[in-house]
């Protein structure tokens, strides 16, 4: 075995790329084998905070990962100092395959897509019924992103003390989207239990426009939040209440699931979305696309879905819903 100087410890010998040039891969392997599994809680300017065997560890991406992104929700392999003590830094040497990736682009013309959250299985779209006014096109865009990523959408309508949910819900009932209506004055145990029931055992990414009451709701769901954000902020040095980076928070109780809080969004770019994946969210319509022309957008005159619906195979409101979602991919003023 080659020696790299008497001050290098085992770990350095195995993992740190040599300053003198490249080393055969085989020297790195053993370290990866004793790597521990970590769950990424947040990433802030290259600093990855992850949970390793119950300990919160700060890590950097190993150079060998190159440009591969590490995002909240990722399952990673971590080596190095896993004590979680102040000023220690571990290394993420591998990102496990993702079961899902919620993506967005800054806007529709932007081909650069970012994975916002990895491995979530549910997307909670938080919308206020008033103050700020609901923005149905933003909701629709979030729904398209959820369907594209294979996440189950959940509509959370807040501030029910200010306006009734009826009109907004009418637009979403034909889509069969699950929903819950909240009001901060009545965020008592009964109301929270309903929301917790919908989140149980799942990894739910929360998205919403700034000011909709997402923080109020998440804080009520995760009483530990103050402590959790305090701990993360000790690492990042950021302010206490601003959600700057997405952050994973454990819901209290065994297998209660995770909430992934994300910074308030103004828009949700959909450059990356493939319309053929959106149709999967409409299993009642999907068989009707068999007669569509090749690469049909399902929103054009030759689309076979009109005939399919006219023949009574599915409800016309379902086709309207699908087309409304597909149309959100076209950019409009205010998106
Ligand atoms: N009337 C009413 N106000 C609410 C309700 N929930 C939250 N608010 C208020 O709405 C404002 C925004 O709430 P936040 O929880 O900070 O909203 P947010 O979505 O986290 O906003 P950002 O932090 O900007 O992303 C605050 O003044 C809350 O007190 C509600 O159910 N009803
Ligand atoms: Zn079609």
TrEMBL record:
Localization, UniProt: Cytoplasm
Secretion signal, residue range per the UniProt entry: none
Binding residues annotated for Zn(2+), in chain numbering: 292, 296, 298, 303
EC number of this enzyme: 3.6.1.-
InterPro entries: G_CP_dom (IPR030378), P-loop_NTPase (IPR027417), Ribosome_biogen_GTPase_RsgA (IPR004881), RsgA_GTPase_dom (IPR010914)
Gene3D superfamilies tied to this protein: P-loop containing nucleotide triphosphate hydrolases, Probable gtpase engc, domain 3
Keyword tags: Cytoplasm, GTP-binding, Hydrolase, Metal-binding, Nucleotide-binding, Ribosome biogenesis, RNA-binding, rRNA-binding, Zinc
Xref: Pfam families: RsgA_GTPase (PF03193)
SUPFAM superfamilies: P-loop containing nucleoside triphosphate hydrolases
Biased composition (Basic residues): 16-30
Residue ranges of domain CP-type G in the record: 109-268
Region span, Disordered: 1-34
Binding site for GTP: 158-161, 208-216
Cofactor detail note: Binds 1 zinc ion per subunit.
Matching HAMAP family: GTPase_RsgA (MF_01820)
Known partners and oligomeric status: Monomer. Associates with 30S ribosomal subunit, binds 16S rRNA.
NCBIfam families per record: ribosome small subunit-dependent GTPase A
Family: Belongs to the TRAFAC class YlqF/YawG GTPase family. RsgA subfamily.
Function noted in UniProt: One of several proteins that assist in the late maturation steps of the functional core of the 30S ribosomal subunit. Helps release RbfA from mature subunits. May play a role in the assembly of ribosomal proteins into the subunit. Circularly permuted GTPase that catalyzes slow GTP hydrolysis, GTPase activity is stimulated by the 30S ribosomal subunit.
Protein name per its UniProtKB record: Small ribosomal subunit biogenesis GTPase RsgA
Organism: Streptomyces boetiae
């Amino acid at each position: 075995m080659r020696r790299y100087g008497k001050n290098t410890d085992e770990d350095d010998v195995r993992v740190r790329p040599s300053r003198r040039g490249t080393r055969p891969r085989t020297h790195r392997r053993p370290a990866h084998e004793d790597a521990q599994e970590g769950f990424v809680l947040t990433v802030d300017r290259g600093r990855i905070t992850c949970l390793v065997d119950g300990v919160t560890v700060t890590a950097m991406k190993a150079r060998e990962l190159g440009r591969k992104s590490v995002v909240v929700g990722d399952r990673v392999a971590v080596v190095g100092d896993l004590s979680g003590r102040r000023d220690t830094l571990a290394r993420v040497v591998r990102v496990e395959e993702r079961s899902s990736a919620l993506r967005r682009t800054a806007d529709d013309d932007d081909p650069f897509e970012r994975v916002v959250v990895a491995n979530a299985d549910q997307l909670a779209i938080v919308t206020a019924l008033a103050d700020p006014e609901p923005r149905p096109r933003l909701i629709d865009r979030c729904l398209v992103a959820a369907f594209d990523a294979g996440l189950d959408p959940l509509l959370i309508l807040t501030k029910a003390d200010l306006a009734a949910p009826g009109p907004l819900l009418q637009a979403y009932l034909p889509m069969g989207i699950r929903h819950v209506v909240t009001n901060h004055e009545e965020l008592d145990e009964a109301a929270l239990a309903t929301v917790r029931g919908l989140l149980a055992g799942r990894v739910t990414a929360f998205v919403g426009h700034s000011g909709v009451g997402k923080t109020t709701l998440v804080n009520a769901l995760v009483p530990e939040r103050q402590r959790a954000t305090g701990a993360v902020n000790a690492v990042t040095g950021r302010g206490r209440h601003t959600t700057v980076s997405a952050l994973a928070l454990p819901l209290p109780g065994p297998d209660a699931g995770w909430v992934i809080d994300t910074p308030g969004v103004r828009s949700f770019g959909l450059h990356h979305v493939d319309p053929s994946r959106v149709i999967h969210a409409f299993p009642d319509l999907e068989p009707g696309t068999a007669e569509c022309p090749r690469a049909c957008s399902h929103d054009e005159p030759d689309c076979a879905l009109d005939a399919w619906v006219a023949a009574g195979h599915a409800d016309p409101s379902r086709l309207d819903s699908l087309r409304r979602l597909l149309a959100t991919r076209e950019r409009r003023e205010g998106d």
